[in-house]
Amino acid sequence: MAGEFELIHRYFEAATTARPDVLLGIGDDCALLQMPPDRVLAVSTDTLVSGRHFEPDVDPVALGHKALAVNLSDLAAMGADPAWATLALTLPQADEAWLASFMKGFAGLADAFGVQLVGGDTTRGPLSITLTVFGFLSADAVLRRDAARPGDRVYVSGTLGDAGLALAIRQGRLQDQQESQGLGERLDRPQPRVRLGQELAACSRCCVDVSDGLLADLAHICERSGVGAVIELEKLPLSPALQQHVRGSGDWTLPLSAGDDYELLFTVPEGLQEAFARISTGFDVAVSCIGRIEKGERVRMIDSDGQAFEPKEAGYDHFRV
Ligand code: ADP
Ligand code: MG
C-alpha cells in the first residue's frame, strides 16, 4: 500500500490546474501565493464529517464535488472570485480507489472554476473532510449579510427545496413522484453560483447562500442587518417536482426550510431595480423577486391573497430572528 507521501504525490500534487499566482504549491512546508494588487482575500472553511454530513457509503465522486461546492458557495455569497483551496483529509485507511474517485469529483469542479489545490494535510482516523477556500474581491464590491435596508427587494436564484425533496425520497420519507427525475443531481452535485455572486456586486450589497433553508438564511440577513422581511409564498421559485409536492401536500416546509440548495439569497435597493433588471438578463441562472425587506425584526410570509401565512408544521423556531 502506498505511503503518505506517495499518496500526496499521486492524488493531490497535480490534481488541479496550475495557476500562475501559485509561486509554490504542494510539497513544501507552506504554499506561497501571490495576491493580485488592490484586492482583498476572502477565506472560508467547512468540515464534512462522515455519518453527520454524508453517509459513509456515499459515492466518493459526488462527495469530492460537494465538499468543494459548499465552500465555493460561500465565496459566491461574498461576490469573490475563487482561486485556491487547501484540503485536510482524515481517512480510515489509504483506500486508493476511494481517493481517486474523491479527487475526480473535486478536480472536476476545481478546474471548472480555475481553483488550484495548494496544500493540506492527510491523517488517519474516522472519515472527515475539511476544506478551506480562498478567493479575491474588491473591497468596494463586497456582498455582506449586514447590508440589507428596509425597502430593498429580496431575490433568490434557481429553485428552492429540490435537494430536500431528493433527500426525503432517498430516505423513504416521501414517495418518489412523476417529476422527480434529476432531483438527485441537485442534492449530490450542487452548482455553486460563483458567476452570479460576482455579477451581483453591481446592484447588490447583501447576500447569503441558502445552505440551511430559505427562512433560516434570510433570518441571518435580518439579524445582521437589524431589519425584518416579508416573503410572498406564491413567488417562491419551485421546480416542477416541488410544485407537484407542494400542490399535493399543501406543505411548504421543503421550499421554506430544507437546506442544501446552495442558491444565492440577496437584496437589491429600490433605486437599483431597473439597472438590476438589465444586468439580470445576462445571468447564467434565473433569479426571482420573492419579497421585501422592511422595518422590524421578523420574517413574515403572506399568501396569494395577501393574508398572513402561518405554517401548520412544527419546527419553525427560526421564524423570529
Ligand atoms: P508537514 O509535515 O510539513 O505539514 P505534510 O507531510 O503534512 O507536511 O504534507 C506534505 C505536503 O503535502 C505539504 O505541502 C502539504 O500541504 C501537502 N498535503 C498533504 N496532504 C494534502 C492533501 N490532503 N491535499 C493537498 N495537499 C496535501
Ligand atoms: Mg502536515
Helices, strands, pairings?
Blueprint (H helix, E strand, L loop, with lengths): L3 H9 L9 E3 L7 E2 L6 E10 L10 H19 L2 E11 L4 H17 L3 E9 L3 E10 L15 E5 L4 H9 L12 H6 L5 H7 L5 E5 L3 H12 L2 E5 L7 H10 L3 H5 L5 E6 L4 H8 L6 E8 L4 E4 L19
Parallel strand pairs: 4-5, 9-12
Antiparallel strand pairs: 1-2, 3-6, 4-6, 7-10, 7-11, 8-10, 9-11
The protein binds adenosine-5'-diphosphate (ADP) and magnesium ion (MG).
Adenosine-5'-diphosphate binds next to helix 1, strand 4 and strand 5.
Characterise this structure:
The protein is α+β, with helices and mostly antiparallel strands. Helix content is 32%, strand content 24%. It contains ten helices and twelve strands. The strands form three sheets. The chain has a six-stranded mixed β-sheet, sandwiched between helices. Strands 3-6-4-5 form a four-stranded mixed β-sheet. Strand 4 (81-91), helix 3 (96-112) and strand 5 (116-124) form a beta-alpha-beta unit. Helix 2 packs parallel to helix 6. The longest helix has 19 residues, at 60-78. The N and C termini lie far apart (52 Å). Bound molecules: adenosine-5'-diphosphate and magnesium ion (MG). Residues 8, 12, 26-29, 87, 89, 117, 119-122 line the site of adenosine-5'-diphosphate (ADP).
